[in-house]
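Before the break, one more example. Copy the sequence into your notebook; we will annotate it together after we see the structure.
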Amino acid sequence: MFSTRRAAAIALIALTAVAGLAACGDDDDTGSSSSTAPPETEAPGTEVPETEAPVTEVPDTEAPDTEAPEGSAVEEPTVESATDALVGLSEADAEAAAEEQGWTIRVIVRDGEDLPATMGFRPEGVNVEVTDGEVTSVVSIG
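Here is what the structure looks like once it is written out:
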């Protein structure tokens, strides 16, 4: 038959299994008493009237005028056209010349040191290198 040691071991295993199962709890969300949401109930004979959201008129707004003045066509820069227009100018003069073309300048290398730049593409943007205050090259467009 069973020895007392064996019976004690079986009893210990059974108690451990029962305690483990009791600690697991109920995984069913429908009847859980630990739920923080109140049960969905509807009082008999009560109806919630349907309502419509008020209609709000939004006034028409126009985008700001970003086009070039009449009579002047804005041409997107190329490395070649920007090089011809900007290289050799002081940084301030290059900014003025670029503005006349509808371009924007971003210095991405100054005196041999790379500067932080975003990856956003701007078709009118001209990325330049400046050395001793003078635009020495057009690095890229955008």
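The longest helix spans residues 4-24. The helical segments are 4-24, 79-86, 91-101. Try to locate both features in your own notes.
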